[in-house]
Amino acid sequence: MRRAAILAVDGGGSKVDAALVSRGGTVVAALRLLNRDHRGSHSDEYLDGVAAAAEAVCRSAGLPSDRRPVTDLGVYCLAGADLPADDRRILRWLSKQGWASENLLRNDTFAVLRAGTDRTWGVGVVCGYGTNCSGVAPDGRTFRFPAVGPISGDWGGGTDIGGTALWYALRAQDGRGERTALSQLVPAHFGMRRPRQVMEAMYFGRLAEDRVVELPPLVFRAAAEGDAVARSIVDRQADEIVAMAGTAIRKLGMARLDVDVVLGGGIFHNRFAPFFERIEAGLHAVAPNVRVTTLETPPVVGAALLGLDRLGAPAAAKALVRRTLTHDRLTADTRPRTKED
């Protein structure tokens, strides 16, 4: 089989999407690999998941894995590509894999941005397991945050929202904080009666601490039902998104432009209108003509489009990728990462 033009990969905290795309925009193969069995996006286990997805999509397309390169261009939009040192490390690793004749590495926020707009510039925000933001100016200049957690000034995403919910629940139980429905909702989610039981289960290793990432839907539900503490967490997340995206807009001199801000990630999969209204109001104060979009397209589409941009593909090819590289196409071949992978 003739090799595809592009291997497009989007890797986040919990999954990796991979697709093989022709120069004409035809999706040759696509799949989603669940990838939560790792110690974070800077770990070797995380890159093992990226490798497993790339190998699996090549097998799905009938491409022999022992004949490399299998594509002309590899576009990898990955969580964990945060600092220049990360970029160098991951690019060295990609070079050893040999899947593509040329490798293009970007943070996963760039995939979100490109998937959410037909332009090549704007601002992309990811808020899922964690949070990050990047921007591209019309002249190609870029801005991004380190986004490696509290040590780089970050707050947000499922781990922080969930961890804060547990924090407030515990303080409500022991009297240090105000009453909140979270003191019932959080332990109930884990089959327990009191927040202290959750704390002890995590302390003694019976419950993984990273399972707090499961709690944001409860926080948004409580906020929608009028819980003041839950609403304060939701408002804090909205304000952090405004702070990140607004900074990117200002740093790149786009405050007077009709700049697109694309929101992608699991935290945006909620229907609590005040959350989005607060984000829009905050961003309009920075850039009056801003256009805020919540991404519905899989971010791997953005990785494929970045590849087609690099190859100078026509608009028809890009439109075809948008139409055919869908969530349904990816989830039709969704698999957990296995020892075989």
What does this structure look like?
The radius of gyration is 21 Å and the shape is globular. The chain has helices at residues 44-60, 84-97, 108-115, 158-174, 182-189, 195-203, 216-224, 228-251, 273-286, 300-311, 315-324, 327-331, and strands at residues 4-11, 15-21, 27-34, 71-78, 100-107, 122-127, 131-136, 142-144, 260-264, 291-294, 334-336. 43% of the residues lie in helices and 19% in strands. It has twelve helices and eleven strands. Helix 5 (182-189) crosses helix 6 and helix 8 runs parallel beside helix 9 (273-286). The chain has two domains: 4-108 and 297-336, 2-Layer Sandwich (Nucleotidyltransferase, domain 5); 117-295, 2-Layer Sandwich (Nucleotidyltransferase, domain 5), CATH 3.30.420. The model has no long low-confidence stretch (mean pLDDT 93). The strands form two sheets. A six-stranded mixed β-sheet has the order 5-4-1-2-3-11, with helices on both faces. A five-stranded mixed β-sheet has the order 8-7-6-9-10, sandwiched between helices. The chain is an alpha/beta fold and 341 residues long.
